[in-house]
Amino acid sequence: MNLIDKVIEEWAWRCSKGYPQLDSEEDLRIFEGLFNINLTEASVKSNTLAAKQVLLQKYPETFSAMADSAPYRIGNRGKISAADFTAIIEKEFGTTPEYFAPNTPQNNKQIKPDGSRTFPLFRFKTEKGDVALILAGGPKEETSERQEHGVINTINSIEGIKTIKDQNGHTIEGVLRAEKMPPVPGYRHEPYSDIKLVIQGTDDPFLISAKGLTSPTIAGGGLQGAMKLSPKVQEFIKQFYEDAYQYYKKIFEEHSELTPEYNLYKTSYFKDVNRKVPEDIVLEIVKGTPAVGGEVDAYYIGDMNVQPQVEGNVIIFNGNIKPVEEFAKQDLYLHIRKRDGDYYFVDNMQTVNGVTMPRIFASKPNGTTASSRLGSHTSLRGTVII
For 65-95, what is each residue's pLDDT tens digit? Predict the structure, then answer.
């Protein structure tokens, strides 16, 4: 008796009918338990790859292939909406897919075979079986900006003068309408504020910065935005970069195999670094200035999926609205984090808004395109504090 015969015999012995039935979920579970193989997941992966090939071949201007490590994702080259994607699935496969919003119980990092905190998941059946496809990318109102669009659309769907509340009793009264914060002339990054509320009786808008529960950074704009703040903030950031450069240089020199041409993405030595912000400049950093799309009046912190309760003209959001002065009472940390992909240690400098500091990492050997990003958060990014 060969190995395959022994496997089938062992499997058959445990099945209720004395032989396995491939359409029996119980028999498949027995096989998976015996040999630690997930037949269902393997089948879904195979079916998904086949469905992706159909879409990539028929819609090359709409979809793009992803890395082999992301078999359940298809790139949204055409920035189509979820409704458009659903229509394509219906046309090509004759079925309407189930839609699961990002970071929901049905679609998150813990979901098998795959899930996403950022992009929507579509599940449907083809002639070959179950398919699970994540549409990676798309209109900002459905991905990175769906929270702020949810707030804006909710407010504007109610006629008259509105009162806005959060789960902790914070209240904004006299709201006439909500608008997306427009770009700031001469500033190429996203503005600090995301939402502009027009308030009855004043020409001064109420500005809100909207953040998800797992946002990688709080105050926007990165290094370019931060260096538009006061000289005191600039000097703090410059010193942080100089100290981070010395910290990373010491690690670089301790490993003899590393050279300026060595691609550091292959290493695990270079962790993100943090520095606590002095209390006297926290408010300025989280509030911003008009030059970067501030001054922020409040932060909206909540789930990316906005699920409000409406009682007449009172809107109760499922997030937390914190006045900026209250928000600034928390500890704040700046962090320097590496961009995804290739990066190399460099000795050259960069000048941002007239202030010169080390570049630290670049996308090419001795390059001048920085591969590090400045961010801020109320919690540490990693564990390294310098």
Answer: 887 778 889 998 888 888 888 989 999 999 9
How many C-beta atoms lie closer than 10 Å to residue 285's C-beta? 23
pLDDT digits (tens, 9 = 90+) for 297-354: 999 998 888 888 888 999 999 889 999 999 999 999 999 988 777 899 999 999 998 9
Residue 221 contacts residue 194 (beta carbons within 8 Å): no
For the stretch 117-147, pLDDT in tens is 778 889 999 888 889 999 987 665 555 567 8
Residue from 140, 90, 355 nearest 233 by CA: 355
SS3 145: coil
Alpha carbon distance 197, 125 (integer Å)? 44
What gap in Å lies between CA 190 and CA 187, rounded to an integer?
A: 8
Flag whether 13 is in a domain. Answer: no
Count: domains in the chain: 2
Residue 171 corresponds to which tokens in the numbers above? 């209240």
Give the C-alpha distances (Å, rounded to integers) separating 345 from 90, 264, 334.
49, 8, 21
Q: Are the C-beta atoms of residues 141 and 306 closer than 8 Å to each other?
A: no
Of 108, 140, 172, the one marking the end of a domain is: 140
Please indicate, yes or no, if residue 272 is contained in any of the structural domains: yes
Per-residue pLDDT band at 231 (split at 50, 70, 90): very high
- CA dihedral of residues 35, 39, 40, 45 (deg, nearest 10): 130
Yes or no: say if 180 and 152 are a contact pair by the CB < 8 Å rule: yes
- Domain enclosing residue 354, as ranges: 145-385
> Residue 67: what pLDDT?
76
Lowest mean pLDDT among 164-173, 210-219, 241-250, 332-341: 210-219
